[in-house]
Amino acid sequence: MSEQDANARYVREAIIEPDEIARARAHAVELGAQPISAAVGAQIAVLAAATGARSIVEIGTGAGVSGLWLLRGAPKAVLTSIDNEPEHLAAARSAFQDARIAPTRARFIAGRAADVLPRMNEAAYDIVLVDADPENVIEYVEHGLRLVR
Fold it and tell me: With contact defined as beta carbons under 8 Å apart, do 96 and 67 qualify?
């Protein structure tokens, strides 16, 4: 095993994913929504904590895995999550209830990100996470740059 493979294995095994996020991950897989890995989740939680994020936008809700990791790192933040799949939004709402996230800490917007993002307030967010359709990532990042403080 190479050193790089050994390091990757260590990271995968060292991350202890909370049960509520593991349940959201399982539901995401059932839905066919590819969730972020536990290692990536732990990384974005650290970034959210390090920035002291209070307001976060997530483009691509999935079943709520990345949103739960973000709020785990930023316990005082409010998350706005955008997805055009009603089934994904319902799964995320359920995951947030399961994790006992107060309804005031998460806002779920049903719609195409390309339609929603232009209407969002400029420089109003601490973090913008793009985890959505790859063909529109550049457009989403451009909007994200406008939205982030």
Answer: yes
CB 24 within 8 A of CB 95: yes
Structure-token pair, residue 69: 């990791």
| All structural domains of the chain | 3-147 (3.40.50.150)
Residue 59 CA to residue 109 CA, distance in Å, equals: 10
Its sign, for the CA torsion 140, 37, 98, 84, is positive
- Pairing between strand 78-83 and 127-130? unpaired
- Give pLDDT, residue 22: 97
Confidence band (pLDDT; 50, 70, 90) for 103? very high
In whole angstroms, how large is the CA radius of gyration of the chain?
15
> Exposed/middle/buried for 147, CB within 10 Å: 0-12, 13-18, 19+?
buried
Verdict on whether the full-model pTM lies above 0.90: yes
